[in-house]
Each structure stands twice: as C-alpha cells, then as structure tokens.
Amino acid sequence: MALIVEIIIGLLILMLLVVAHEFGHAIIARRNGVVVEEFGVGFPPSFWSKKLKNGILLTLNWLPLGGFVKMRGEYDAASKKGDYGAATFLGKTKILLAGVVVNWLVAIVLLTGLAVVGLPKVIPNQVTIPSDTTVITKPVEISVIMKNYPADKAGLKTGDKVVRLAGQLTPTISRLTELTKKYKGQNVMIVYDRNGTEYSQQVDLRNSNDGNYLGVGLNQSELIKATWSAPIVGVASTVQFTWLTIQGIGDLFSNLVSGLVMQFSSNTSVRQQASSDLTSASNSVSGPIGILGMIFPAAVKAGPTQLVFLTAIVSISLAVMNILPIPALDGGRWFVMTFYKISKKKLTKEREEKIQTIGFSILMGLVLLVTFADVSKLF
C-alpha cells in the first residue's frame, strides 16, 4: 500500500512538471499572437472541460501522464493570423523554448528554497558561497542490509541511524568502519536511531577478511545551508546540474554507440568491453518505470528534502531532454525549422509531419528500450 502511495506521489510530481512545461508554451504563444485552442492536464479521454473567458478550452483527462497545449495552425507552413506557423521565427523560437525555461525556473526556485533549509550535497565541487555556507553532516545511515549478516540477525533495518558501537560514538562512516574492524568477531552493543527513538541491540560482528563485519551498506549525507546567497546557489546549482545531466547523456550515447560497434568485433576481449559499455549505458538511465517504481519511492522514504531535491533534478532533466535535437521534442522542432529556414527550403505540412512522425517513433523506441531495462532491474 505504501509503495502505491509513493508511486502516486511520483506520478503527480511528474505530471505537474510537464504541465508547468506546457504552461510556458501556452503563455508565450498567446504573447506572440498565437491562438491557444486547448490546454490539457493529463491525456485524453477527457472527464471534465470548461471554456475559459480567454477562449481556451481547459480539459482534465484520464491518463495522468503529463499535459499538452494545442495551438491553432501548429505547423510551420500555416499562414493565417493567429496560427503558430504565422508567428515570426523569433516568436516561434520563444514558444518552443518556453517550456524548457519554465522547467529551469522551477528547478531554480526549488533549489533556492532548499539552500535556505538544507540543500543535499551530492557532488564534491557543489557550488557554494564559502562566506555564507554552513555544512550540516547527517548521522551515519544504513542504506543496505545484507541478508543473514549480523545487522540483519540483530533486527536492524534500512534507514536506521547508527549512533554508537561498543559504547563509542560513530559520527562518520570511517569511524564506524574503524570500530567494526577493531571489534570484529566480538559481541558488542549497537545503539541506533529509528524514527527519532533510540534503540540498543547486541550484535555478533563477523570475523572475516572481506571488511564487512556488520553486513550493511552505509550512507551519510551532508546539507548545505545559506542565507543571502541562497538565490545565487539556486541559480548556480541549476546550471551545474544541467551541465552534469548533459555530460551524463553524452556518456550514455558514447557507451551505447561504442558498445554496439564493438559487438561486431571478432576479438573476444573487445566484445567483453562492448558488453560492459552497454551495461553501463543501461544502468545509467531510468525511464518512467524506473522513476516511478524505484527512484521516487526511495526519495519519498528519505523525506521531504530528498523528494524536493529529486523534483528539481527531474525538472532539469526534462529541460535538457527537450532541448535535444530529436524531432518531436522542442529542440528537434526548432532544429528542423531553423535548418529549412537557413537552407531556404519550404517546410510543408506533409514534410514536417513525416519528420515529426519519424522522430516520435525513435523517441518511443528509446522509451520502450529504457522501460525494458527498468523492468529487468526490478526482476
């Protein structure tokens, strides 16, 4: 039941981010003289609709997978007044990029808010203003429990925060690791915090050479807090995470292409490297199932700070994905429009529909591929 609630929360957040993206398109379209015929929350079939005073049909739809905006004459060759196609090149550029800008703005607002209350530090060189930064180190937390190992036998659970071991404080992962090594093979007392309440339990540490005497995976997060520099940190963090997302996509495609090319090699070691590259590509990306079934539930369990942080990162990811030059995405539509303008060729409705259809097919193929990878990870 809890997992279903977590998935619903993730679904609502994703939908709101997409609706915000589409809202950006709608606002800038109207400001550039384009008639917006319909603004939909979710995808058809519709269960409620209302004609607004400004003439836009607002619809609420049954499939909670995002949203859409329908503009009149939504192809480049349309020429009637109020058509999308009749807008200037600059106007169409603004309309196409407006959704991306809104996603970036959402991320900036969320990351600025987190900078005030505590922004998770997830990379070593994360942007801060040293003179206005306080770093808060959270307690050592158990992130993985190995079955039939000492922690599991003692009843510890993921999310428990280790406070003391053998009567000594464990403020860092290195200190806890040092203590488990010191007392390996012995029965010691472990004190841990679970949901704000401290518990103590005897645990028999393993006496082995693999270094995992307690049988756990550990995590320790740091939070960055700022005051007057919070907006600067919000903007700079959005830029930084945008660049990291672009790098991640570049690495993904690099591993994918090199892996596919090397698969045809007759050299066994090369094929093994190809398999490694393809596995790396598969593991470094998540689709709808991965985001809703694994990532969002984990963030919900971790608390509101992690959930808001993940929402900001997903918003940045939506912005980056939509500027890629893939037809059917905003960046792809702009690229096609710009190419035909520069080449001084006419982009007919039929030609544009064909390009967008091919792009959409490729996009759906990638979604299916990533979904298959997500399902494989689940099982």
Q: Could you outline the blueprint of secondary structure elements for this entry?
A:
Elements lengths: L1 H30 L4 E16 L5 E15 L17 H29 L1 E3 L12 E4 L2 E6 L4 H4 L7 E5 L2 E2 L3 H10 L4 E8 L2 E8 L11 E4 L2 E4 L4 H33 L5 H16 L4 H15 L1 H19 L7 H13 L6 H30 L1
Antiparallel strand pairs: 1-2, 3-11, 4-11, 5-6, 5-10, 6-7, 6-8, 8-9
Helix pairs in contact: 1-2, 1-7, 1-8, 2-5, 2-8, 2-9, 5-6, 5-8, 7-8, 7-10
Structure description:
With 379 residues, this protein is of the alpha+beta class. The chain folds into two domains: 1-35 and 72-121 and 227-379, no CATH class; 139-220, Pdz3 Domain (Roll). Helix content is 53%, strand content 20%. It contains ten helices and eleven strands. It has helices at 2-31, 89-117, 150-153, 173-182, 230-262, 268-283, 288-302, 304-322, 330-342, 349-378, and strands at residues 36-51, 57-71, 119-121, 134-137, 140-145, 161-165, 168-169, 187-194, 197-204, 216-219, 222-225. A hairpin with a 5-residue loop joins strand 1 and strand 2. The longest helix has 33 residues, at 230-262. The radius of gyration is 25 Å and the shape is elongated. Residues 270-275 and 277-282 have low confidence and may be disordered.
